[in-house]
């Protein structure tokens, strides 16, 4: 940094007082000398350069048209100048200075500006300072914070390369590009309205996607959660895939047996279908009869439950009453009960734990029935007969 400081006003005042005392001692002979010194001090104070400058360095990929003495500007206003331009390897170093009264942000960028095609270029420091720290004296602006304009010759060179690539020695060597343009022109001829409609529909689709971006990103988030869960269960997924592969290998090894089984199953299903078709009426009757039996069993479920509950006890008593030596059933018989079967059954049921109300039902059924004499059929009430349907289980009895 170059700093040029003018003499202080206090020093000038002290010099003036010293000169005044000198005049007082020397008299009139020093008046001319005092006046000359005062004028000289005034000129030094007024004309001495008092502005401070700051320096900096910027690195560019190239610096075409930039020389020593070129302007350094902020928002197009000159604030300094370039001191030196020299290459350093694959970059160009540009040293510059600028007036310290102009503040430049600490993260400033340097851009080479080309006002016109032929004029000299200048360095622009951007952006303009607003608040915050300022660029330090001697700071360096690295290569990634600088930019240079595109050279006209590079534009022409790129256009030339494109022309050669599309020319008769390139993509259009066999006329492919010409045919592409011709076919494209034929296909697009008269399709302007359709193209406009396509573009309009595409814009509406994009608008719909934009309105549903929350749902879309929610789906993506859920997929991410799912994939994360799969990643955390990698060992289980690998084991599942391995087991699935084993099953697939086993099925592949038994494909002939599976094919034969499916073939036999098809034959069996065909025979079953033919059997059902031939015996449709009989099957219908059997199913209806089975439905009737099922209904009767459902109605008599309490009685069936009672039989299943008391049956094992009755069979046990029968087994205990059997006398193997004589081949007879040994029981303690009450001959008086033989004349009244209802009383006999009632005592038997109550001994098995049935309530007394059962006796009333038994009496209604067996009222007036007497046990037959040996070798004689039982006597039934007039108009009565045996229940050949067993309570409806065997149908109507026809």
Shape: elongated
- The averaged pLDDT comes out at 79
Order of H and E elements: HHEEEEEEEEHHHHHHHHEEHH
How much of the sequence is in beta strands? 5-15%
Largest sheet: 8 strands, mixed
H/I helix tally: 12
Write up what this structure looks like.
It is a single chain. The model is unreliable at 1-13 (pLDDT under 50). Among the domains are: 9-47; 53-153, no CATH class; 232-278. α1 (9-26) packs antiparallel against α2. The protein is of the alpha/beta class and 398 residues long. It has an eight-stranded mixed β-sheet with strand order 7-1-4-3-2-6-5-8, with no helix packed on it. Strands 9-10 form a two-stranded antiparallel sheet. It has helices at residues 9-26, 31-47, 152-166, 176-188, 192-211, 213-232, 234-253, 255-278, 280-299, 301-321, 341-351, 357-366; strands at 53-60, 71-74, 77-88, 91-99, 109-113, 122-126, 139-141, 146-147, 322-323, 328-329. The chain is elongated, with a radius of gyration of 60 Å.
What tags apply to this protein structure?
alpha/beta, 8-stranded mixed beta sheet, 10 strands
